[in-house]
Amino acid sequence: MALEFLMWELMLLEERVRVQERRIERRVLRDTQDPFDLPREEFVFMFRISHELAFDVINAIRPLLQGQRSSGLSPEVQFLVTVHFYAQGSYQRGLGGNSILNISQPSVSRSISSVTNAINQRLLRQWVKFPMTAVERQKGREKFEAAPQPFEGTLGAIDCTHINILAPIVHEEAYVNHHGNHSLNVQAIVDPDLKILNINARYPGARNDSYIWSVSAVRQGMEYHFNNGERRTWLIGDAGYPLEPWLMTPLPHYPEWTRQFEYTKKLCKARNVVERFFGVFKSVWRCLSYQRVLMYAPDKAGRIVNACATLHNMQIHYKLPNREEDLDVELIGQNMDANLEIPYYIDQQGGPRAVAKRIQRQILDQFDNLRDGEDDYNQRRINTGKCTNVENKINVK
């Protein structure tokens, strides 16, 4: 009995020795193979960021990453492991076994959590900011007016996209989207340079776009500025959003060569920047791709989306080009009409929608060389007998 016990103890000791030897091997490999020694092009391909950007981020979040163990991972290694996960969307075990990084799966998991939280805490609000001052908003309007596809008065283009996640334990049904997958419905507002002005990754996949907009802080900010005298400033969205004085939407189902058709065509061309953004965003940060699933709880998955948004804006600031061969063309534009639920509103005298329709009418008047589609629409209703007696009298007048 004593001999068997000693043999068991010996086996445990040998296992501990193997684990310790593996740790030493990983540390030796990490010390001899510095990822920052990689050529610039290879480094950018692997991590989607440059050496300069990496050092700036690491220095900003270093106080939040330095552990108390002298043998712990350096902030540099923690950050590169996390960004490599964002960029490749790999499993943690395969990521840790990378010949350059060489760390264990538990260390990868801890690094992703620490770095993601640090970026959200230190950098998110600095790099993802919605224009609120008069100067910022004027610059935003001028940028859209000078864009290849301009739309006067626009601050940004808004839309939502789904990021697949692991089925949560609590309120699992709330995260099932219209495709039957568990996801977050992420709202983004971008400018013509694909710079993110606002990112909202807090809502489950079952929530539609118009609801997320109705409770967003950006909507409150836009309404505040409108109520304080700001005019001819709005966002542009698709038909899934409500028409408001600070949010212009398309006018579908009007025939060609009408003012409404030309207005809608111009708006949709300008709004296409947000569709293009989602394609670029998910192709650069592959962990967010529709082909992947973030194996995390909703709150952590949302923080990962925020971290990727922060790095995306930093890429633009550092003028890092997106490698066109890395982009998945199928992603660009795939979000159109996703989770589309066209809201129904009743016009009320002096209400926000009535004001918005008057603003929309002023925009339509810019196309005075085209006929008004409302005349055709009203005539069709009269011909088909769908007008009420009151409407018939108004149309006759």
UniProtKB/TrEMBL annotation:
Keywords: Hydrolase, Metal-binding, Nuclease, Nucleus. GO terms for molecular function: hydrolase activity; metal ion binding; nuclease activity. The keyword Hydrolase applies. GO terms for cellular component: nucleus. It comes from the Eukaryota. Belongs to the HARBI1 family. This is DDE Tnp4 domain-containing protein.
